[in-house]
Write a structure and sequence with these properties.
This is Amine oxidase domain-containing protein. This protein is an alpha/beta fold. Among the domains are: 206 residues, 3-Layer(bba) Sandwich (FAD/NAD(P)-binding domain), CATH 3.50.50.60; 90 residues, no CATH class. The strands form 4 sheets. Strands 1, 2, 6, 7, 8, 9, 10, 18 and 19 form a 9-stranded mixed beta sheet that branches. A 6-stranded mixed beta sheet has the order 5-13-14-15-12-16, with helices on both faces. Strands 3-4 form a two-stranded antiparallel ribbon. Strand 7 and strand 8 form a beta hairpin. The longest helix has 28 residues. Flavin-adenine dinucleotide (FAD) binds next to helix 1, strand 12 and helix 13.
Length: 502
């Protein structure tokens, strides 16, 4: 694979894909299968995979550490699962990581019974299920419900639930803290700062294929490596951060990268993440985007979820597979500089000597700036206090992800905020830009799937769908000129000399 383009002058390709994550690679894989040859992927960073990034603890790649996606959500009708089965990616045989709570304590060391946290969790789950049912009802009966946040609705229902149980003040306060922990966990599922931001009426728009979550024993990058192995190596160019897409010229699209390279093509499949587009759409597109597209980019949102891995010689102090800590807070706002760690909703044992915890939103973004040793020290203090054990060692190593600071991601995954509509705005995110009656810029990526947004499955499906759209347009005969040009270009590249008879 080429890393830096040697030739800064304009290059022409039939299709250019921007981004080499799950969506971009799935599009390239589909185009290759459909027999297209003039395809180029422009990747802004130095690596493939985007928000799929597996590091390994061992040489044999059997102990993966997922920095990004980890679960393949659901199996029925999930093309990622079907591909994994068809290509015999090994299935995970061990325990699948889950958000189940093992031990639960408060930050001052009070043990919280499983009955109590289960009661709160089960109530929360039943509210989530109502929300999903509500969305399906709205869809069937075409009855839009006014936009309000999940948190607001759930707080009200939870208050009624507490009142009807006639709890004493202490139990009531503990349950509210448990509820706050559950809200924080849900920010990890949704990829947002707070459940105050997430639309109640739209929450149920998010779906997963039916069936259990799966993990690959060698990590989610197995998928990325497979897709990459199926396309020509010279299709991918690294460090080509796209800065501008000139999309309404007569018969082609012109792409300019930050390094000055210019590429021209007939169609673009843009898989730039929503958060990157939010930051750059004004300069990214020339001419300016139509208002419906701008509205979709502005209304939809993508937040930050980061992971922190803590390494130890041994994990003697950690009982069971997971630890949930509830903090002295009954509300959403934290004094970030002093209390950022109170957003961590769960610590999970991922290997005998490695813990993983999750952090979201502004607290995650703040944590991205901190020194990793400092993070280890703060969390050691938290463990010592909440597990009442002053001898807990500091971790030997800390790794935390920095998805927000990554200019090619600017966050983790998308969600539908209050005021947005999945039907309208995700649909508009996915809608192509058309010039001279042709779809010039097509959009793929997790944020463009109306039900599987935020997931690898959503990214994979949208990449494939947009590739098929391009294939359909190119083979519909009205594009024969471009086909001929790209075929001629391909011929020109072949180093071939006719042998003349003596
Ligand atoms: C911490 C975390 C945990 C997650 N857990 C799960 C999970 O368990 N299961 C699940 O299904 N999903 C999970 N996800 C979400 C999943 O990773 C994404 O939905 C999916 O990988 C997105 O794929 P994509 O192709 O749409 O975008 P990306 O993977 O982000 O690909 C976009 C590509 O475009 C490149 N790019 C960006 N801007 C430019 C530019 N201007 N020019 C050129 N290239 C550019 C990027 O470098 C990147 O390679 C998780 C994500 C994170 C961060």
């Amino acid at each position: 694979m080429s890393t830096v383009d040697q030739n800064p002058i304009s290059q022409y390709h039939q299709t250019i894909i921007i981004g080499c994550g799950a969506a971009g690679l799935s599009a390239a894989y589909q185009l290759h299968k459909s027999g297209f040859k003039s395809v180029l992927i422009l990747e802004g960073s130095k690596r493939i995979g985007g928000r799929i990034l597996t590091e390994y603890l061992d040489k044999d790649s059997l102990k993966p550490l997922e920095m990004g996606a980890c679960w393949m959500h659901g199996i029925q009708g999930n093309p990622v699962y079907e591909l994994a089965v068809r290509e015999k990616f090994p299935q995970h045989t061990g325990t699948i990581l889950s958000f189940n709570i093992g031990t639960c304590v408060d930050e001052n060391g009070l043990q919280i019974s499983s009955e109590l946290h289960n009661e709160v969790d089960q109530f929360f789950e039943s509210l989530l299920q109502d929300t999903r049912d509500l969305f399906e009802y709205q869809q069937k009966n075409n009855t839009p419900i006014s936009s309000i946040s999940i948190q607001k609705v759930f707080m009200e229902k939870f208050s009624n639930f507490l009142n009807s149980n006639g709890e004493d003040n202490e139990t009531r306060s503990l349950k509210l803290k448990l509820l706050q922990r559950r809200f924080d966990q849900e920010t990890g599922e949704c990829g947002c700062q707070s459940m105050e931001q997430v639309s109640y009426s739209e929450f149920g728009s998010y779906q997963r294929p039916i069936g259990p979550d799966m993990e690959f024993p060698s990590g989610y990058s197995t998928l990325i490596r497979y897709l990459c192995s199926q396309i020509p190596k010279n299709w991918i160019l690294f460090e080509q951060f796209v800065e501008n897409i000139l999309w309404d010229t007569d018969n082609h699209v012109k792409i300019t990268c930050a390094n000055g390279n210019i590429y021209e093509c007939n169609h673009v499949i843009c898989t730039i993440p929503l958060a990157v587009m939010k930051w750059s759409y004004k300069s990214l597109f020339t001419p300016a985007l139509p208002t419906w597209k701008i509205e979709a980019i502005q209304k939809m949102d993508m937040g930050t979820v980061d992971k922190i891995y803590l390494f130890y010689e041994q994990l003697n102090f950690f009982n069971g597979d997971s630890l949930a800590i509830v903090y002295d807070r009954e509300h959403d706002t934290l004094d970030i500089k002093r209390e950022w760690f109170k957003k961590i909703f769960l610590f999970q044992k991922v290997y005998d000597n490695v813990l993983l915890c999750w952090i979201t939103g502004d607290e995650a973004i703040f944590c991205e700036q901190l020194d990793e040793k400092h993070i280890g020290d703060v969390l050691t203090n938290l463990f010592r206090k909440s597990l009442k054990n002053p001898n807990i060692p500091t971790p030997t190593k800390v790794i935390r992800t920095q998805w927000f600071s990554n200019p090619c991601a600017k966050g983790s995954y998308s969600y539908v905020p209050v005021g947005a509509s999945s039907c309208q705005h995700i649909h508009d995110l996915a809608k192509p830009l058309t010039a001279h009656n042709k779809s010039r810029v097509l959009f793929a990526g997790e944020h463009t799937h109306t039900r599987y947004y935020s997931t690898v499955t959503g990214a994979f499906i949208t990449g494939q769908t947009q590739a098929l759209q391009v294939a359909q347009q190119l083979t519909a005969n009205n594009d024969t000129e471009t086909l001929v040009k790209s075929i001629t270009d391909d011929f020109n590249k072949i180093q071939w000399k006719r042998e003349e008879p003596p």
